[in-house]
Amino acid sequence: MHSFNFSEKIIENTKKQGKNAILVVGEEPVTKKHINNILQKFSVQNSLEQIKIDIETSTKLESMIAKFANDSLFSEATLFKINILTGRISDEIKNFFIYTVQKNDANKFFIFYFKQTIKDFSKLKWTKQLEAKSLILEANEAAPEKFKEAILIRANSYSLNFTDDAVELFSQLTQGNFLFVENEFIKLQLIFGDKKINTKVLIRHLSNGSKYDAFDLINASMSGDKKIVIDTVKCLYENGTDPLSINGLFAWIFKAIVKFKHSNNLTPSYGDFTKMRIFGSSQIIVKKSLSILTEIQIETALIRIKDIDLICKGLRQGDPWLELNRLSFGLARILNKSKV
User: Fold this and answer.
1) Is the model's pLDDT at 179 over the cut of 80?
2) Are strands 78-84 and 21-25 parallel, antiparallel or unpaired?
């Protein structure tokens, strides 16, 4: 179960099922923050005292047991937040956790944080005895096919109101980067509240309202205006625009271009564009590219877009701005030659 679906109702349902623990698997910071926010709210509503315990390889049972004796004057019930910092802990601590959770004390609720991926977590033997009394939540980045759904859930938690096209564009621009999504949602909520946010407003905001925005870079690149490309890249860099969002816009445009090119659909209809979520002046860009760019040139651009994505995410070495400059200027040079 993914943790963006996690709410106070799920905690109540978990307790009704005779379970008294939650096992959070993974280290994605935004999803962990979401879980902690819900737990904090639940603790306040139900007057739970919160006790945090870090478990390392060197942790001794004797030093930990005292924290489980709740002598609070203000609360009878306790939420224990147990952070497993290593995969190797002593057998006596494992057995203590198994016994304590299975005891199912009505005044105690437990949340365990594991750093492993869900695949590696499934290989741990001692946690199997916790699972019967536990709910398992995944704190990992959403799969690509679930990313848009996750964005909608997070947007709803900030009471943000996007048009369908803006949600589609936002998911393309921020693919796989939840930290960027979270930071943008915080700013958007402060600026717009519950007002409707469309694609024009969104892209202007993501580009920090500078003289040039990411759409200007796309337009300049695909129309062969090399001077504007140079000026726009410089402006976006100096204004601190996130390179991942710019690269996401190139990916969004080229996703449509390659689909139409491979299907030999060089004159897409309005319906074809709508299915690919391409609107307005972007349709002109795609049409022009289809008539000028070869399949090899399109595939080369897609490879570079993928490389930039990996660089932005720290999975490959390189300078994303240098590569964005090469991509955009390279496209402008090709398309400039086609001008009559």
Assistant:
1) no
2) unpaired
